[in-house]
Structures are given as structure tokens and as C-alpha cells.
């Protein structure tokens, strides 16, 4: 037996769900998904953002369906995407009146690949079960899966109150936080049971239980995985802006994925004003790629730079290569299967440059301080050229493209 214990645990077994041609759960790779922030009734903006998210790598895109105008726009959005050649599955995000919108807009119900239901706001008391059942019946009629998406911020208050009272009656063995976690897990599982009782098979149900704290997310999903085999959608809600959101999402989901938990992920980042929505897709891809679960893009290994670095050329080159690869990957992936396995090295000096470059498929070692102004390029471990002069970066990018095309 290996003395190293760093391998991920075997994947938690879940029932596979087909979401408009994309498999979530079972043996399928962990799926990257995202959500628009446009007004869905604004067809042009929504089509543009769905297309941008999908081209960036989002395999499923969720859109808000909050009123008649947005429900009426959904089939138009679907049609426009098809005309662009984009078959990305669209998920409708419903709250409060999903049962009504789906009933009043059958074309919307048909155009969507999945319905997201929040059991915390589908109604109260007897209305809750009836309206929840209405959505499930709609899913059965249209042959669609649902995601039962519990959210910490809109948790079923009746269930929470009942569990709090029960805990109190037993002498409060659990903290309020523990009871809340239990309410989240129960809300998801009870709703899934109800959906199955209505006739929706488990192969049409995905569960999520989003919270905003890393330790709560790990606890809740670990428990969900222990108690069920439903496909699981991971995501930390209200993760925050910038590096805080990225670190929190990566820490929480990284730990769960390492335990084999999670069939699809969304990294929810609060965008900077005017910021690029596709960033959350890139972060999700990078999380899966750096953990070794999936390979989306060639790896560009670049040294961090130090006092031996003579200029910023190598950082700029590394960035330009990453940008080139990301932009050209949709075409290259189709033309050159396996291109995402490529390893490129961009190094700042002779100390580690040639060694790292030889380990890559193609690598360049730029000259550091006191070194001769020459940049050896290695292809598959052998020195293939030595670049000099002001156009080193452009020449290396051409060599990389030629190498891929060859
Ligand atoms: Fe510094 Fe050279 Fe190492 Fe890059 S390869 S970090 S420039 S010593």
C-alpha cells in the first residue's frame, strides 16, 4: 500500500441525471456551470451572456425566470442560441411562483433543460406541498430534471422552527448552528422524497444545499452524501468579491471534491462593477484542473520571477500564452483532440529554466541577469531553437501555434 495518502477518495456514488445532454453524477466528470445576471426578459443581453459563459467553458447555464416577461423570453433565448450553434442546456431558476410560470408558459417549460426549485420559498404550509408538487408534475410532463436547491438564506422556516423546538425539548444537545445545518439537509432530503413520491425518478433529481460559510458547506454536503445517492450540485453562496470569494469557494469545494463529493460545481463570485461574469467559469475550471479532476486547458508553467529576472517579458509572455490558448481552445479542441494535455513552460532564467522547459512539451527559458541575451526553446525535451532580439515573445508564440498544429 502506498505511504502517500494524498489521493482523492473514490467518488461518492450518485444516480446520473441527464441535463439537456450533459450528464451530472454517476461516473460523469464534474460539470462546470454558471448563472447569468441579466434580466432574462432582455433577450439580447441574456443571449450574449449565456454565449459568453458557454464559450468560456460553462457546460450548463442557469437563468432567472421570475415573471411572465422572462418566462416568455426563454423560448426566444433558446432559439437564438440554437441559431448561433450553441446547444448549452438552460436551467430556469424559479422562486415563489415557479408553479404558475411553468403552467402559464408551456413553451418556456419545454425550452428549459432543468427547473431549479427552492423548497424554502415555494409556498407555506399546505400550499407549499401543492405548489412544489405542481412543479414536479410539470417536470414529469415535460420529461425534465429538477434541482432541489435549498439555500441558507431562504430556508424553510417551519421546518427550522420544528427542529429547534424538538432540540429544545430534549435539553438542547445541539447548538443552533447544528440544528440549522440539520434543517438544510432535511429540507433537501424531504423535498426529494416528496418529488419521488409524486413520480419523479431519482435519475431526474439533483440536490444542492448552499450556505455562505466554508465549514457549514463541508458539514452539510458531507451529511447529504452520507444519507443519499442523489447527484449533488456544489456551490458556496454569497462567497464574496475578488480573492475572498475565490479562496472561500476553492477551500470549501476543494475539500469536498477531495472526499469524492460533488457532481457539478458553480463558483459564485460577486462581480466587480463592470467586471467579467466569465471569471467564475475560469475559476471553476482552474479548481478542477489544479486538483487533477479535469483538464480544460494546456498547463502553462511559469516561474514566479525573482531578483534574477531582467524584465517583465516572461510574465507578459506567460500571460499572453494563457490568453491565446484560452481563446483558441474551442477550435483547437475540435481540431486537435488531446491538445488540452499540452504542457508549456515559460521560465525567467537559467537556474530552473532549461530543466523545467525540458519537462514540458514546449518551453522557453528567457535570459536572467548577467546571462547572454538568448532564449533557448525546448520541444519534447530537445533544444529546438535559440531566440534573440526584441521579438522573442512573438516568435515563441508562433512556435507554439506551429507545434500544436503540427
Ligand atoms: Fe528566479 Fe530563475 Fe527561478 Fe525564475 S527560474 S524564479 S527567474 S531563479
TrEMBL record:
Record-linked Gene3D superfamilies: Dihydropteroate synthase-like, Sulfite Reductase Hemoprotein, domain 1
Pathway field: Isoprenoid biosynthesis; isopentenyl diphosphate biosynthesis via DXP pathway; isopentenyl diphosphate from 1-deoxy-D-xylulose 5-phosphate: step 5/6
Annotated ranges, domain IspG C-terminal: 300-400
Cofactor: how and how many bound: Binds 1 [4Fe-4S] cluster.
Alphabetic keyword roster: 4Fe-4S, Iron, Iron-sulfur, Isoprene biosynthesis, Metal-binding, Oxidoreductase
EC number(s) on file: 1.17.7.3
GO biological process: isopentenyl diphosphate biosynthetic process, methylerythritol 4-phosphate pathway; terpenoid biosynthetic process
GO molecular function: 4 iron, 4 sulfur cluster binding; 4-hydroxy-3-methylbut-2-en-1-yl diphosphate synthase activity (ferredoxin); 4-hydroxy-3-methylbut-2-enyl-diphosphate synthase activity (flavodoxin); iron ion binding
InterPro entries: Dihydropteroate_synth-like_sf, IspG_bac, IspG_bac-typ, IspG_C, IspG_TIM, NO2/SO3_Rdtase_4Fe4S_sf
IspG TIM-barrel domain span: 14-284
Cofactor: [4Fe-4S] cluster
Principal EC category: oxidoreductase
Catalytic activity as recorded in UniProt: (2E)-4-hydroxy-3-methylbut-2-enyl diphosphate + oxidized [flavodoxin] + H2O + 2 H(+) = 2-C-methyl-D-erythritol 2,4-cyclic diphosphate + reduced [flavodoxin]
Binding site for [4Fe-4S] cluster: 303, 306, 349, 356
Pfam families: GcpE, GcpE_C
Entry similarity comment: Belongs to the IspG family.
Protein function: Converts 2C-methyl-D-erythritol 2,4-cyclodiphosphate (ME-2,4cPP) into 1-hydroxy-2-methyl-2-(E)-butenyl 4-diphosphate.
UniProt name for this protein: 4-hydroxy-3-methylbut-2-en-1-yl diphosphate synthase (flavodoxin)
